[in-house]
Amino acid sequence: MITLTSAELNTWIASFLWPLTRILGLISVAPLFGNVSVPARVKISLGIMLALIIAPTVPALPAMDPMSPAGLLILVQQLLIGLTMGFAMRIVFAGVEMAGEITGMTMGLGFASFFDPQTRARSSAISQFLALLILMIYLSTNLHLVVLSTLAQSFELLPISSNFVSTEGFFQVVKWGGRIFSAGVQLSLPMVAALLMTNIALGILTRAAPQLNIFGIGFPITIGVGFIMIAIVLPYLMNPFINLMQEGIDAMGRITVALAPLE
């Protein structure tokens, strides 16, 4: 007859529950996995499957009741770690979406907005297009698997312990958040530069021929130039997108190391 003590049962529960919490934290925020169009049942099933694979490889865990105040504190910490790692990768996609917003507003397509299921907000058509483009590259290059691999490695870089995580990791997230603006400007720079020259030319034309209706000819020209520049730049966007996503994966690793508690 097999008998289990309460201590052994608590150890089994903790060895599965704590890794599962970190995994679900990342899945709920990270690109693709955290999309609101993905059913919650699928996310939970994926998290349980990953936890069953990763849990046996996790380093030794603190010997405590997972339902005790200290055990619940560890649970909250694991959730914060997973959310932080997923958010670091989400920033990459936010930077690309910002590039689309800048391009669309400069083209005069700011009024052409759609409902974005990812953020549950309104976003421009160009932003939606670039977001879908980087998502396809994300999947085709198997970077979503690299994200899961980084998550598995995080249990070695940042083992589950009862010590408080370092606040330095959260400062690293704040610093990394600035990449949204720099990436957005860099990716949209060719389109913005071409549209700036177009607007300057239209301004000179308006001064030379005041009888021309700038609103009648300006919008079609800027929208047309914008689409032409997007078509020209599009073949060259794959490498910047991949490099940006690689930066996001590196940021996940840096943030994980920075979250390690001080001894």
Automatic annotation (TrEMBL):
<feature type="transmembrane region" description="Helical">
    <location>
        <begin position="12"/>
        <end position="34"/>
    </location>
</feature>
<dbReference type="GO" id="GO:0005886">
    <property type="term" value="C:plasma membrane"/>
</dbReference>
<keyword id="KW-1003">Cell membrane</keyword>
<keyword id="KW-1133">Transmembrane helix</keyword>
<keyword id="KW-0812">Transmembrane</keyword>
<dbReference type="GO" id="GO:0009425">
    <property type="term" value="C:bacterial-type flagellum basal body"/>
</dbReference>
<comment type="similarity">
    <text>Belongs to the FliR/MopE/SpaR family.</text>
</comment>
<keyword id="KW-0282">Flagellum</keyword>
<feature type="transmembrane region" description="Helical">
    <location>
        <begin position="214"/>
        <end position="238"/>
    </location>
</feature>
<feature type="transmembrane region" description="Helical">
    <location>
        <begin position="70"/>
        <end position="93"/>
    </location>
</feature>
<dbReference type="InterPro" id="IPR006303">
    <property type="entry name" value="FliR"/>
</dbReference>
<dbReference type="InterPro" id="IPR002010">
    <property type="entry name" value="T3SS_IM_R"/>
</dbReference>
<comment type="function">
    <text>Role in flagellar biosynthesis.</text>
</comment>
<dbReference type="GO" id="GO:0044780">
    <property type="term" value="P:bacterial-type flagellum assembly"/>
</dbReference>
<protein>
    <recommendedName>
        <fullName>Flagellar biosynthetic protein FliR</fullName>
    </recommendedName>
</protein>
<keyword id="KW-0969">Cilium</keyword>
<dbReference type="Pfam" id="PF01311">
    <property type="entry name" value="Bac_export_1"/>
</dbReference>
<keyword id="KW-0966">Cell projection</keyword>
<keyword id="KW-0975">Bacterial flagellum</keyword>
<feature type="transmembrane region" description="Helical">
    <location>
        <begin position="46"/>
        <end position="64"/>
    </location>
</feature>
<feature type="transmembrane region" description="Helical">
    <location>
        <begin position="129"/>
        <end position="152"/>
    </location>
</feature>
<dbReference type="GO" id="GO:0006605">
    <property type="term" value="P:protein targeting"/>
</dbReference>
<keyword id="KW-0472">Membrane</keyword>
<feature type="transmembrane region" description="Helical">
    <location>
        <begin position="180"/>
        <end position="202"/>
    </location>
</feature>
